[in-house]
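Render this sequence as a predicted structure.
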Amino acid sequence: MTQRVIRIIAIVVIFICCFVMGFCSGFIVERFPDLVTKIQSYRDYTGTAEFLTKVATPYAETEVDQNGLFKPFWEAWNLVLTYYVDQPLDANSLMEGAIRGMLESLGDPHTRYSDPESYQKEVEYMSGEEYEGIGAWVDVTGEFVEISSPMIGSPAEKAGLKPHDLVIAINGEDMTGIDPSDALQKILGPKGTTVTLTIRREGVDPFDVTIAREAIITPMVISKMLEENIAYVQLTQFGDLTVEELRQALDDLIPKNPKGLILDLRNNGGGFVNTCVDVASEFLPEKKKVLTEKDGDGKETDYMTQSYGGRALDIPMVVLGNEGTASASEILIGALQYYERAVFIGVKTYGKGSMQIQPKLSNGGAVSVTIAKWYTPGGELIDGVGIEPDIPVEITDADIENGIDTQLDQAIEYLLKNDKTESL
């Protein structure tokens, strides 16, 4: 195939992808959360007819001359294809690099591109399907892969990974300058194999940790009765099955007449905003504001609890959160805290309070685009701020080494001393 033919094909591919992103993304919106950012990534989605119409015709109001606007781009494209020293070039990589560069110019870490392979893994994860890796939610919006939170019982947790750990090398290969989405693929791999991560953690020198990969299927809800006759429910994410699993858990626990309920949102990186509202509806009365969404035009949209009766409206309640609690988890904590429905015990949350859509592109990849910011029912911004606990309790390294969960212990103690929370 001649260089001219390759160039023509590449130009066509680039043009189609840019056209799809600019004009058609509103018609192909698919859901996904922030995490992240394990991852975190998060893909938080809600679609309205008004929004779809707006996205479908982004240039109609600004009247941008695309031919003139993209002329320098095509000039640079042709120069690279014609004169770059190492030929032949991968037109697909150039196309994806152009998309990434465009999104990075926005300065928003949560507006990002996922290649087809990465996007498929994200969809499988949010659907509760099995994948093979180390079991951690990660954020790929920075310079390196950042651990948002290890999954409970996962190889990552057993290896001692913590929120905000940065993976600066993988199997001895420096990840400086490597796109974090590409680096993430090096962490994933067949079960039974190992991967060595070089971790940069605040306050300590970089260190290596070798982790055996496993098949990971993360239940979205974990529940049990504690010895003190207190119900315990942990939400690992706000995914496709979260509401169904939560309702099943509450239907099993509430008839046992527990003294109180502990809702554990620690290391929960978020998920679908509509799932969050449905979860809140199990603990708050109907027609209570869960959050306010404010878009770039200043338009505000309130999300209210559902009209059906929740399963746990009156039981005394504590919610646990930490630095790995992000996005939809922070929305829920903010609502429970505002209405004094639950006492928040733990440490300040992550501070990811923006909404993304993730339209799928024609090449099988997807673009996450921030479309709005979230505010608590009291009007407080979540993004970049986080939520402060009512009762601050930290877990030290010594606690972890000795298997002591001081936050859970404090929650149990609080519920045993207080028969019920204040009524709404």
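Summary. Residues 3-24 form the longest helix (22 residues). The first strand starts at residue 112 and ends at 114.
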